[in-house]
Amino acid sequence: MYRLIILFSFLWLCEFAQGQNTMIQDTLANTPDLNYREDQFYFGITYNLLNDMPKDMSQNGFSSGFHFGFIRDFPVNERRNVAFGVGLGYSVNSINQNLLIARNNQGDFQYSILDESMFSKNKMILHIVELPLEFRWRTSTPTEYNFWRIYAGIKLGYVFSSVAKFKGEPNDFREKPLDDLNKLQYGLTLSAGYDQFNLHIYYALNSLFDSSAKLEGQTLDLSLIKIGLIIYIL
């Protein structure tokens, strides 16, 4: 149900963005704004991949991310097709995998790899406040709202809420918060495409967990890669 809600929400936003673009074009066709800005709201859906997984660890199901926010556009040339963007956003990320995250009797987190026959659900959910910083190039004009774009940059994130959910044998449980996470996350971003549908990639530059998270004595050096679609509207 969670995935269906996200999918239908994203499709609705695509239709909404198309309608907004059409309305803006009709309204401003005869009164072009020579000081226009572009793409100041964004909505995205991604598939979340874990990078550098240890032996026998794997993902299962659909690990989704849902993202939205606002980016202030700062054009830097007279044509206004080159700009910087600074924003603020929010994302919720679900990561389905076979890494068990549970506390021991001393209250410390322990990590182990599960056989997938032992559980029906095992996932992490991360809620993140994000600060995207972008360098933007596009082919837009004051009267053209369907254009090519390439936006590259970095994204800083703060994990303000996290939970691990397990359903299986011998009993269901959840752990919250995940103390071993690196709450500060950062990575490279790239968005490119035409009109409302754009490919979006996020590649984390730091580990999801800190050095205290160990699996069989080895530090968990997992990081996130997010691949999906993003739409922009004014």
Q: Quick gist of this model?
A:
This protein is mainly beta and about 230 residues long. About 10% of the residues lie in helices and about 55% in strands.
Question: How would you portray this structure in words?
Answer:
- This protein is mainly beta.
- The chain is built from 1 helix and 13 strands; from the N terminus they run αβββββββββββββ.
- The protein has an 8-stranded antiparallel β-barrel. It has a two-stranded antiparallel sheet with strand order 4-5. A two-stranded antiparallel sheet has the order 11-12.
Strand content: over 45%
Shape descriptor reads elongated
N-to-C series of helices and strands: HEEEEEEEEEEEEE
**CA radius of gyration:** 20 Å
- Largest beta-sheet details: 8 strands, antiparallel, barrel
Secondary structure: number of strands: 13
Q: Which spans of ≥5 residues are poorly predicted at pLDDT below 50?
A: none
How many helical elements? 1
Class by alpha and beta content? mainly beta
Structural key phrases:
234 residues, 8-stranded antiparallel beta barrel, two-stranded antiparallel sheet, 1 helix
